[in-house]
Design a protein that fits this description.
The chain is of the alpha/beta class and about 120 residues long. It is about 25% helix and about 25% strand.
Length: about 120
């Protein structure tokens, strides 16, 4: 498994996590162009992404999400509340909301689930 920081900081966050068969971004807080360049540097194409996981809806975590979703149709995973906030962000533009995949935060799961 590879874990690569494409960008980290107040100007934008984007982490690649992947194997030969699975490619995931954690956050898309930089431009899609910078995301694609960062992926290219590690030998991954944006079209190969299986998912984008958004940790929260601040702009330094979602800035490139709209273009990434429109251009590559990557499923977007986040909590229901985060997806609702992202869906209201006009600056991300239009993209298919069918890409939204809500996840349940761990703190909502009962302890027995994790034993």
């Amino acid at each position: 498994m590879r874990l690569v920081s494409i960008a980290s900081g107040s100007s934008g966050n984007c982490i690649y996590v992947g194997t030969e068969n699975t490619h995931i971004l954690v956050d898309a807080g930089i431009s899609n162009k910078r995301i694609e360049e960062g992926l290219h540097e590690i030998g991954v194409k944006a079209d190969e992404l299986d998912a984008v996981v958004i940790t929260h809806e601040h702009s330094d975590h979602v800035k490139g999400l709209g273009v990434l979703a429109r251009k590559h149709g990557v499923p977007i995973y986040a909590t229901k509340e985060t997806l609702e906030e992202i869906g209201e962000m006009k600056y991300l533009g239009d993209y298919p909301r069918e890409l939204f995949c809500p996840v349940l935060p761990m703190w909502n799961l009962q302890w027995e689930t994790w034993r």
